[in-house]
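ok new one. same drill as before - structure tokens go in, u give me an amino acid for every spot. 87 of them this time. try not to just spam alanines like last time pls lmao
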């Protein structure tokens, strides 16, 4: 019950204006599988809430497979935050 009360997925409500989330996951995460991020993105789409989704195909929990992938992901994050701050 407690986890459901703090879950972003379970607490999405129709008609509420949310900031556009940047959902980032890795295909090979062995701790928090990518299905959770995919499910959240699907619910946002069904509710017509805009979002950005990026799934790294390599790497594990919280990291890219290599420095190039991690650098690319960091650039995506910084671009996202910069655009949001400029709006």
């Amino acid at each position: 019950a407690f986890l459901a009360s703090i879950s972003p997925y379970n607490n999405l409500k129709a008609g509420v204006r949310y900031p556009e989330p940047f959902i980032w996951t890795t295909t090979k995460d062995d701790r928090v599988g990518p299905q959770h991020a995919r499910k959240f993105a699907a619910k946002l789409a069904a509710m017509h809430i805009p979002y950005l989704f990026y799934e790294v195909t390599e790497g594990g929990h919280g990291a890219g497979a290599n420095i190039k992938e991690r650098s690319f992901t960091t650039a995506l994050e910084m671009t996202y935050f910069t655009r949001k701050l400029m709006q």
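The chain has a mean pLDDT of 90. and btw The helical segments are 2-6, 34-46, 67-86.
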